[in-house]
Amino acid sequence: xxxxxxxxxxxxxxxxxxxxxxxxxxxxxxxxxxxxxxxxxxxxxxxxxxxxxxxxxxxxxxxxxxxxxxxxxxxxxxxxxxxxxxxxxxxxxxxxxxxxxxxxxxxxxxxxxxxxxxxxxxxxxxxxxxxxxxxxxxxxxxxxxxxxxxxxxxxxxxxxxxxxxxxxxxxxxxxxxxxxxxxxxxxxxxxxxxxxxxxxxxxxxxxxxxxxxxxxxxxxxxxxxxxxxxxxxxxxxxxxxxxxxxxxxxxxxxxxxxxxxxxxxxxxxxxxxxxxxxxxxxxxxxxxxxxxxxxxxxxxxxxxxxxxxxxxxxxxxxxxxxxxxxxxxxxxxxxxxxxxxxxx
Length: 344
Fold this sequence. Notes:
Elements: E1 6-11, E2 22-32, E3 70-76, E4 79-87, E5 89-94, E6 99-103, E7 107-111, E8 116-121, E9 131-141, E10 152-156, E11 163-167, E12 173-180, E13 206-212, E14 217-220, E15 229-236, E16 240-242, E17 245-247, E18 251-255, E19 261-265, E20 270-277, E21 285-287, E22 290-292, H1 295-308, E23 329-331, E24 337-338
Antiparallel strand pairs: 1-18, 2-9, 3-8, 4-7, 4-9, 5-6, 5-8, 6-23, 7-10, 11-12, 12-13, 13-20, 14-19, 15-18, 15-20, 16-17, 16-19, 21-22, 23-24
Protein name: Pirin family protein
Pfam families: Pirin, Pirin_C
Region (Disordered): 315-344
């Protein structure tokens, strides 16, 4: 038996391969141009399949947007979306009546539960310079007992996300941001939504980003729980060592969660996303945006959506965006409004 902590290495595709309790992970890295007066690309859309554009033509896509890029109103049931925006902004609206503009390191955690419709649009706010957008969207499954809970909307502002900066013996820095899960030295973890798998005892869910300076070394500590699975997504950089194994191209790397794993970076800055958790271990039935345990439940989800539209869409537009001047904010279904704290 090999002593290597590396269990599996797969090339990164779109979306990235995931393991239970995660269902899906998409990395969007779009080099959007300047925006026009509508916050749409100030560029020709010729040659794009508008409404279904995943082409990455000129380094960016319109996705399902026809003016502003993004994803107009669409339903979900039976799981959660965790959206971490590293560059740019998302304008969010949903059938609960919640709205938000978030980005620049913020994360949104949306429990779809029994059903929610939401839109995620990418307004191009800058008219005199480029509008890069970089984000992860992660789908985290819900256990059967929580698949029909009421939907829940949560914002984690960048300034509130616990972070740890560590220098190795050579003075080279590794920085870890913890959207979910504890990390010694990073401070108290943010509480996940109450019905999330991440909130269940022993679920051991962690969502971290890891940035390493050239030549940096850092040891990833072992997970806390029993039966946890852990994937490292090496998505930026040239080469890294994972537990003594060289990885020279971007990859999804499953490592043993019960062991400390040394990460050694090569000659250019490297970044990872880490997803870990104890598997839910239940049957998964999926049809597009609905994730349940049986095909009968999928059929019921489709019927319920046709009948109720999961509460209906309270906005005039299927792809609403806020004004260019609007700053980051979140308005919850009960009308409560919050904004990120100003940096000290």
